[in-house]
Amino acid sequence: MRLYIDPGTGSMLFAIVIGLVGVVLYFLRGLFVKLRFLITGGKAAASDSNSIPLVIFAEDKRYWSVFEPIIKELDRREFDVVYMTASKDDPSLTCEAYPHLSAQFIGEGNRAFAKLNFLKATILLSTTPGLDVYQWKRSKSVKYYVHTVHSPSASITLYEVFGLDYYDAVLLNGIHQEEDIRALEKLRDLPAKELTYVGLPYMDEKMKRIAQLPVPEKHERTILLAPSWGPNSILNRFGSRAIKLLLQTGYHIIIRPHPQTFKSEVDMIEKLMDEFPGNDQLEWNRDNDNLPVLARSDLMISDFSGVIYEFSMLFDKPVICASSDFDTSKYDAWWLETPLWTMEYIPSMGPILSEENIEDIKSLIDTTIGDTKYAEARSTLRKELWLNQGEGAKRVVDYLIGKYQELSHKDEKEEEKEVRPADLPEGSSAS
Length: 431
Hints:
It is a single chain. The chain is built from 15 helices and 13 strands. By secondary structure, the chain is α/β, with parallel strands linked by helices. The chain has two domains: 37-200 and 389-417, Rossmann fold, CATH 3.40.50; 207-385, Glycogen Phosphorylase B (Rossmann fold, 3-Layer(aba) Sandwich), CATH 3.40.50.2000. 32% of the residues are buried.
């Protein structure tokens, strides 16, 4: 007879085991510290040389583009950083451009989290939500956890429940994010996080790259279908029907599924790719770098994917978004009565694709490309969601180095308190 453990139970058991191991290890470590204190006559020990000043954790290789501008600025200032990745083929592992970067593959899935759960570092920076919720636990030897976003839309409330609750700080890029975070903190009686407006370092870098691109050659009209993933996405809602209708327009069609689709919706995407193999009119795109495909597209059709904001803000091109009765039940948005501002922007950026007008999608595309009324909305979007444009990496690094110095200074003060004569064992000396 075979025993079966469902994924949820498996995750819970893993968390319990990690927790028990952590209790034992930290008990032994604490005992060692006390013994060392007595043996050295009560002298304060020097800062732990095994503790890393700054760690960046990337759960997937696709986040290298998010972190590289920050690493580049850290390297320019000669500040060392350890980059821990859960992708064995992460570009960081073969990057030799930054002498102050040390990249490590720490395993996939639970192996990566097991490593992080016992990490010794001053600051950990990540774009991964869910800290201290499931497998990824706060390490007692990490002083400060900082979250940065990986999408210009970055609606904090569209993380799964409790996504950012246990971070110490969040680096923001848009005016609405602080309001949502504070509302969740008040609702859940959480301590206030440190919130700092920095901008979007990776968008700044993309804008620099776009400025260097050659002027696009004249080409046939190209439509990019770039959906998100999950039950509300276009590919799940309209499936092969949407692709058939797009092909009937006669335009060149590029389909770029969300990377998570190939992990969580394998059967669905494989069926569609078999039904619609690539040819001269249709191409499936899975490039790690999305900039070239965005540059050669005239219009994007999407749903609630953050890529619509990249397309609009970087290239000032029109979008069509599918309507959706978005189910917020598993997201932080469900807990708040305030409007989901990410969704409020979408109707101002372009027309909404629905069951009523999908059959006439060619006319919708043609009208949208020729209409100038959405340009003003795109301009407003850039102002509200891309603060400190061009200064993102500098501001992130200013914050990280400043925070490191602050925490190090705090440690020095605490060490000074430990060697006060009143605190020493009888017969000991502070000299």
